[in-house]
Amino acid sequence: MRAIIATPDAGPGYRPDEVPDPVAGPSQVLIAVEHVSVNHGEVRYARAFPAGTMLGHDAVGRVLRAATTGTGPRVGAWVIALGAGAWAHRMAVDVGAVAEIPGGMDVAELAVLPTVGVTALRALRSTGPLRGRRVLVTGASGGVGRIAVQLASSQGAEVIAVVGSASRADGLASLGAKEVVVGIDAIAGEVDVVVETVGGVVLPAAWRLLSPGGVLHSIGWASGEPATFPVNSTFAPGAARSLRSFGDVASPGADLACLLGLVRDGALRVPVGWRGSWRHLDEAAAALLGRRVAGKVLLDVD
Amino acid sequence: MRAIIATPDAGPGYRPDEVPDPVAGPSQVLIAVEHVSVNHGEVRYARAFPAGTMLGHDAVGRVLRAATTGTGPRVGAWVIALGAGAWAHRMAVDVGAVAEIPGGMDVAELAVLPTVGVTALRALRSTGPLRGRRVLVTGASGGVGRIAVQLASSQGAEVIAVVGSASRADGLASLGAKEVVVGIDAIAGEVDVVVETVGGVVLPAAWRLLSPGGVLHSIGWASGEPATFPVNSTFAPGAARSLRSFGDVASPGADLACLLGLVRDGALRVPVGWRGSWRHLDEAAAALLGRRVAGKVLLDVD
């Protein structure tokens, strides 16, 4: 089958190639992948993977073979999946990492949801109730930013969306942001929660805005720059502030189903900012890394 | 009365001077201060305080006037106190920020406990049960480090003490450290909890050692250097890691009493590394900032 694999020593760090079909384990389904999405780190750091690694994590497709354990979706069902090796004609994935797509939904655009949706959902959930809390979303025009703005505002938070330039502010107010701000230095007052997706200078700047007891979720690093915390920046009067890392997308099935329900009910708009064939991955990656995509990159696996 | 006040534009940033006696509010006690201690930041950043600010936070003395609310220690009682303006012949402090010293204790050395004791106690308490957990203490030869080593090991943790040089490792094993390591790069394996007192390059190095779900308490910054986190250093597989700031020494009375009980029962040794008259604060500060004090600086207020 055709798949996009890591090539650490050549080109952009990846290329399409012919590889053997994956073999599904007893608690896995085999999927015929139709649509996938591209996350920032997958193209920026493709070279970090061993040569031949099958890349990609977010897929939508139809079940070709059900799990032999008898659990999970049946053959022919449309599913959304979060797992390794999504950029391929076939993907083998644990039944606990897929969710069946309800009938009547436009399946293609759902492929942008898995990584960003589960990440934003779990970060915000770990914060506790959001009603009445001031939530700052940095890099708000990106894929995970647009999801976080919607998830937080629909749970009653007062959302401040920060973008890097005025041209990237479009549409954020309609997604629920109460304020849309260009540059983090323009923000006045404290915030209770930060969903931080940029890293670099934005991370310590956002940290400085936290109220006593506040939580910063570091769930992206789109800047590609290190983050320098000034001397004593971790001391301030009042209850401890927390910076929480993100690394856990294990067993995402139930959360994928939750996200599908929100989309079906009109409570979550899927942020597709670029769509094309997976044959144009180079072009899509350049647009994504050049910050020219307002939302997520969706690829059709043809 | 005599007190040590901030002088942002002169000398080391502080000097002894004659100032009016403090006036205790209705829920405060007035203390005749006998012994005080010096915390790193109090001398390193003395210039950050407005001119005339009475410095110091940790005191032991006798109650000259009880609170008019009828609560708190009686006149003549020996107390330990955590509050602003400790480096003075008289200190007015909330009854909720003092604890009466049980009879039979050597009162002088207790003056080193308030800030470092409450800070370490509260950081470790917020982590949850410590039995069987691997706890890393950085800057372990300093005052807060020596307290943290003891509090963690006596609660069943496996404590790794990190020091900057071999000459600073003395005595840490006898305080309960299972391993004493020179330089954080020498540590193998993951740790569940970090008590981080150094900042600078040590902070991100310690962060990198955290296990999934681990917690780093940033409660000191003795290096005086900024801390640079590499790109993507907040992502790692597994449950979220947390960095927690420290800023809350509010209402420390009950925790001061807890610390006194531990000392009385032989469960906590008070880490006095330098003792002299408060007239020699300059000399003590130079030793502290030059990392020549193994533990805390204790000053006698004569």
TrEMBL record, chains A, B:
Name of the protein in question: NADPH:quinone reductase
Pfam family, one: ADH_N
SMART domains on file: PKS_ER
Organism listed in the record: Micromonospora yangpuensis
Domain Enoyl reductase (ER): 11-299
GO molecular function: oxidoreductase activity
